[in-house]
């Protein structure tokens, strides 16, 4: 019991990353994990990647979500440099998004009701759902990582053309 109370989680994370990155020499290492979010104002939560069937008063709402948590480690001492939830809307924190009425804190999109699979196995085999989760994850990493690393995104050609 004593070991659980006085654990050094930062040292454990650093040790884990040292082991994973053994033999490499990078400036930073990035760890992407599942994140958790409450659903609306309820006590229920969703975790990681998936599809949610939410029964509401006038029918049902279907949400596809891709919730990720990012940790960036220093490549020399493996200390945590930054950590954050991956976001698509980087202009508002998760708290502000919740206050604005977002149903899930993090990347999600509403789907037509007929999108919900009749059997769980159907969800894993559905390319539209799989590709939707991949697209949200890629978009959230593309938007969140540059902010975390302090890198300015490259200008698009359309932004640099003279008018």
Query: What is the mean predicted local confidence, pLDDT?
Result: 82
Q: What's the N-to-C terminus distance?
A: 68 Å
Structural class: alpha+beta
Largest sheet: 3 strands, antiparallel
Q: Any overview of this molecule?
A:
The chain has 163 residues and is an alpha+beta fold. The chain contains 6 helices and 8 strands. It has helices at 2-5, 9-20, 94-99, 120-124, 127-149, 157-160, and strands spanning 28-34, 36-38, 45-47, 49-56, 59-66, 68-74, 80-85, 108-111. The strands form 3 sheets. A 3-stranded antiparallel beta sheet has the order 1-6-7, with helices on both faces. A hairpin with a 2-residue loop joins strand 4 (49-56) and strand 5 (59-66). It is elongated, with a radius of gyration of 19 Å. Residues 158-163 have low confidence and may be disordered.
Which features does this protein show?
elongated, disordered C terminus, three-stranded antiparallel beta sheet, alpha+beta, 163 residues
Summarize the structure.
The protein is an alpha+beta fold and 163 residues long. The protein is built from 6 helices and 8 strands; from the N terminus they run ααβββββββαβααα.
């Amino acid at each position: 019991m004593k070991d659980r109370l006085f654990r050094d989680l930062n040292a454990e994370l650093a040790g884990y990353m040292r082991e994973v990155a053994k033999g490499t020499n990078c400036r930073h290492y990035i760890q992407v994990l599942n994140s958790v979010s409450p659903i609306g104002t309820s006590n229920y939560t969703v975790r990681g990647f998936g599809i949610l069937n939410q029964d509401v008063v006038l029918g049902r709402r279907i949400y596809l979500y891709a919730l990720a948590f990012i940790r960036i480690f220093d490549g020399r001492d493996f200390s945590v440099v930054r950590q954050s939830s991956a976001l698509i809307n980087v202009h508002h924190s998760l708290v502000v998004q919740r206050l604005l009425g977002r149903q899930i804190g993090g990347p999600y999109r509403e789907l037509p009701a007929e999108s919900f699979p009749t059997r769980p196995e159907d969800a894993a085999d559905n390319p539209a759902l799989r590709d939707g989760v991949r697209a949200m994850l890629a978009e959230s990493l593309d938007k969140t990582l540059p902010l975390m690393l302090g890198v300015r995104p490259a200008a698009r050609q359309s932004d640099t053309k003279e008018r």
